[in-house]
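User:
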Amino acid sequence: MIFAQILAGGKGTRMGHVQMPKQFLTLADKPILIHTVEKFVLESRFEAILIVCPPAWLAHTQAIVKRYLHDDRVKVVTGGADRNDTLMHGIAYLQENYDLTDDDVVITHDAVRPFITQRIIADNITAVLNHSAVDTVVPAIDTIVEGEDEAILNIPIREAMYQGQTPQSFNIKTLVKAYDQLTTAQKATLSDSCKICLLAGEDVHLVRGENFNFKITTPYDLKVATALVETRD
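Assistant: Predicted structure:
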C-alpha cells in the first residue's frame, strides 16, 4: 500500500505575530494546508492521506478538512513534540489501523509547500517502490558556506550540493527500524527525516524537485505564494 502523510505539526514561529500556525493561514481563498492536500487527493494510488497536526489544532483541522475536502481517504491525526516525533505519530496510526507489509511505503510532505506538482509526487512513488528512502532536492544555486562562530569552516564544491525539499518518502518498516536504533541524543538533533535512514546505513535516493516547490516560512514567503496563486488564477 502507498500512503501519504502531510506534516502539519509546526508552530510557525518565523511567520511573526500571527493568530495561528502558518499551515492554517489563508493563501488566496483557503488555508495553505488545503492547497497542499488537494494535490495529494489527485493521486489515486494513495490508500490514505494523513494530516498530522498539533493536538491543540485538531478540531480546527477537522473542520477545514470537512469544509474543503470531500475524500474519505483524508484522515486527521495528532502530531508530536517535533518534526520526527510528528512523523512517527503518523506511522503509529498506520500501524494501528492497517495491516502493513514489508512493501508498504509512505510519502511525507510539508503542509506549507503548496506548489508541489503531480510529477514530483509520482516520481517519489516510483522511486520509493524501488529504494528504502527518497529525498526531493534541487541543485544549489548559490555557493554553500559551512561556518561556526562567524568563521568559515568549509566551502563545499557547489556542483555536489543540493537543497532539500519534500516529499521525503520511505519504506515504512525500514523507517521504523532505523528510528528505533537512534539514541535519544540523535533524535534530539535531527532536523531532517532522511537522516534517520542515513544514520542507520540506508542509502537515500534523490528525486528532482522544483524551485517553486518552496516552503512558506516567513511573511515574505507568503507574499510570494499569494502572487503566484493570483498569477496562476
